[in-house]
Amino acid sequence: MPTGLNLETGNIPLKYAKRITELANHEWESGAFLEKVTPITQWLLKHWFTSPFTDNRSMNFHEGQKQAILNTIYIHEILKPQSAIETCKIIGEGFKEEEKIYKKLDDRFAYPKYAIKMATGTGKTWVMHALIVWQYLNAKFDTQNSGRYSKNFLLIAPGLIVYDRLLDAYLGKIKANSEQNELRDFDTSDIKINAELFIPDEYREEVLGFIQSSIVTKKDIGKKVTGDGMIAITNWHLLSLENEEKDEAKDDIYSIVNDVFPITPGKTANHSLETLDDRYLRGNEIEYLSSLSDIVVINDEAHHVHDNKNRGEKEEVKWQQSINVIAASKGNKFIQIDFSATPYNVTGSGQRRTKHYFPHIIVDYGLEEAIKTGKVKTIVIDKRKSISGQNLEALDFKAVREGKKVVSLSEGQKIMIRAGLQKLKILEKQFVSFSADKNGISNKHPKMLIMCEDTSVSPFVVDYLVKYEGLNEDEVVRIDSDSKGNVSDKVWSEVKEKLFNIDKYPKPKVIVSVLMLREGFDVNNICVIVPLRSTEAPILLEQTVGRGLRLMWRERQFDDIKAENRKKLLEEKKEPNSYLDILSIIEHPRFQEFYNDLINQGICGEGGEIPTDREKILGDLIRVPLKENYRDYDLYIPFIIKDKEEILENIKFNIDKMEPFTAFSLEQMKKFVKNKENTFYSEELTVKTVFGNYRVPPEVFSAQSYNEYIAKIVSAINRNVLKTGKHRSREFTYMQINTSEVARAIDKYIRIRLFNREFNPLEGDNWKVLLLTKYLIVEHIIREVNKLIYHQQNNIKTEEAVVLKKYLSDIDEMKMRKNYSIEVSKSIYKRLPYPSNKGEFEKDFILFCDRQAEVESFIKIKENITDFIDLTYIRDDGMIAHYYPDFIVKFKDEIYLVETKAEVNMNNRNVQSKKRAALEWVERVNALKPEDRMNCSWDYVLLSDKVFYEVKADGGSLKDILELAREVTGS
Fold it and tell me: What percent of the chain has pLDDT over 70?
């Protein structure tokens, strides 16, 4: 078998990736994509990427993650290549330069193989989750036995850090005080916490059950029996047949002794029978994995699958050779998915240095795009011409040695450490004080990472920080590793809990490491990096920078100020307005070429002297607490409920209010079913399934009887209608419906009203008409039932209602931007915010409200802060969604919900639907006892900028404006 991955590819694979992206996006935007994939995939894509699902979730995939998922599915399900070679041929056909790649590919690319290039910190694990769900569900429901899907997965990590992170993601964090640190809490797993995103409701219990029962750790591969597939997680040592605890320096001696002398049972731990059994069984894991009929191998941090050079000759790393063995018997039933931010090898040095990208890259979401779109921190190089009067270029940045022994840090290293500490202290002071809650607890604890030359230097760094810079020992953590970046299990077990919870606590402040933390160290609060290493290897430099890229300030309220920072730094080449989500790298002269490359790409700025004032660190962000006399202006929102788990036993469906289906006649549809006979189902399942944005599982279209069809429709409606909103507190959940009543209502609707005539679904095969996805009958039924259930839920008899009062003052402070907020007197806060983008209308409304003598109190509603002011409405497509009006204004005996809109948007159908929902809500409120509605009548007004400014200019009061707006809009 030919060896080596160092093909002379240069940047050609990135051209491939760009072309794949263009093709996939064209198919997606045209709608053709969904018509060419399986019903399961179709349903997953709608759930992941389309409205209303994306509207009703607090988390969604960003564009880079979406592109990675789309490109993978596009190639695998639409292009359907049998191998990576075939993928290259399809994409590169007709382009002579690109053809050079696939002509060089060998049998290592003779099966489906996809490399996903995503910048560090952009959430590749979420893409991994999605692809596993996609493969598993398709394999489970693959009635055609296509062989293109699998329920077996092998996740390979490069080391202990990534291995532990994968276990956290799929099994959850280790329980406190668990025996041998092996018990994990599945509820804390990434896949469970974010299940709403990854798994549609219909499959959630099934997929989570599969994951929880099918995870196999590295020690149990080939030993643990699973019932419905397997997710095996290991690090590369298992596949390379190396002992991960032995030191690299002992490799040759270890191998010689191991080969010459047999190991016999003894008294030491290494000679226990259990240990000897484990050693004997080493290699059986590969044999077991090879015996499986199909498998998906996922390489995390796959840049490790590159060539080793041994005396000038190239060879594959041992664990890639093991992957090749596992793949050998499977043909195209073996799939390899490689994730890496740096999927390339480097040849040459200086000006002759060349990056050779892996030939099977299918998507390129690089650092440039990630930074410019705000998915990771913006990078700033802290450059100084001189520090303390010394020229940087004249300083030595390597540790001082006597012979080969390190005796102290150099002056250059000490200067870099002091510069990093200075910035860290300033950031810490401002970040912690700004983010602390009323109890003084903050989750914004900035950290500094120091990357050392080798393990002989790191103790001197710790010693210098403690003895000369005044840090306490518990403020510094040191993680040493061998030259491969490995650390023993014993050391790792002692430090990993402290390391992975580092964001939550003020200590430690400084992390000192060599290679161990170059990947998988997925924390958010690294704000300063001091690279003491002198290596110029591009991969290592990118990985070092990558440790600090993950966002620290993820709250949506900070998005606009961070966007302004990027514009000032990257476009205007000016100092940023704040240091929110800015990663400072203390300049190392040896890395100048690397820095220049970042700057030339427009993804890195140059820092000046470290700022000390608050405004330079936090920009115009301020904390606005409740006023001392806030009770004079406080308001509450009445939530009308009967019980958290209320069942509407007496739900009444008036089918006369349900619209009939008129798009096609019943005769046309019966004719279609008859013509298709036995071929109807397969064609519809694989090609014609287009069913809008509804929460309808594909199994609906494979129902075997009319009763099963009704049950599945009810299940889909139940899950959608009763779903808790993305901001809604569990205290105010929706009511439960009586599903048997819904089923009876749907049956009656189908028999009498659906086709505007009597229709017997049980006569012959009449009911199969209802399966015709081409005619959108399913979503029509759901739309009509949704409307009735929505109105039923909003018609509780007020004399039976229980009212919960949620006071605005429960939010004890608002964080806002000073430059986009206004001082007010008639609110519970001293200032109220308005949007930085096109917010002039809201700003003027706030000013006008505050000056009106008749206004007693008002508040600006912010969806991400006052998120409990949440109304539900029926969207234009028939789905239930969530709505947050802009303002609440209180007069003496009246309270108005006010929505401000530009005149051009007033007739938007969803705007009108929101208006109808708000009017229904205030009608219910007004039916309550006066003491449950602040002794006021409530009203809703949809206010256009045109009406506001015209009446204001004529000298009208706010009451005049609201009354006219109500007349104009029919509020």
Answer: 75
pTM of the model: 0.79
Tokens of 83: 């191998």
Q: Give pLDDT tens digits for 253-262.
A: 334 334 434 4
Strand boundaries in 417-571, DSSP class E: 447-451, 476-479, 510-513, 526-531
Apex 589 CA angle, 585 and 594, nearest 5: 65
CA end-to-end span of the chain = 76
CA angle 854, 855, 857 (to 5 degrees): 150
302-313: pLDDT as tens digits: 665 544 444 333
Detail the DSSP E strand segments found in 634-724.
636-641, 647-648
- pLDDT per residue as tens digits for the range 1-11: 333 444 556 68
634 Rama sector, left if φ>0, alpha if ψ -120 to 50, beta otherwise:
beta
- Using CA atoms, how far apart are residues 865 and 558, in angstroms rounded to an integer? 12
Sequence-ordered alpha helix ranges (H) in 328-467 = 367-372, 411-435, 458-467
Q: Residue 854, class by beta-carbon neighbours within 10 Å (0-12 exposed, 13-18 middle, 19+ buried)?
A: exposed
> Helix or strand or coil: residue 153?
strand
Place of tokens 């240069």: 10
**Which are the contacts of 555, defined by CB distance < 8 A and separation ≥ 6?**
864
Taken in order of first residue, the domains within the chain and their CATH numbers are 12-241+282-365 (3.40.50.300), 369-619 (3.40.50.300), 643-795 (no CATH), 809-969 (3.40.1350)
- Tokens read off for 172: 């959850």
Pairing of strands 386-387, 378-382: unpaired
Please state, in angstroms and rounded to a whole number, the distance separating the CA atoms of residues 615 and 622.
Answer: 10
Pair 895, 889: CB distance under 8 Å: yes
Q: What is the C-alpha separation between 844 and 597, in angstroms, rounded?
A: 46
**Mean pLDDT of all residues in the chain?**
80
Q: What is the pLDDT of residues 427-465, one digit of tens each?
A: 998 998 898 887 888 889 999 999 887 888 999 999 999
| Distance set, CA 70 to CA 48, 60, 134 (Å) | 11, 15, 11
- Cα distance between residue 409 and residue 415, in whole Å: 10
Q: What are phi and psi of 691, to 5 degrees?
A: -130, 35
The enclosing H or E element of 118 equals strand 113-118
Element (H, E) at 948: helix 945-953
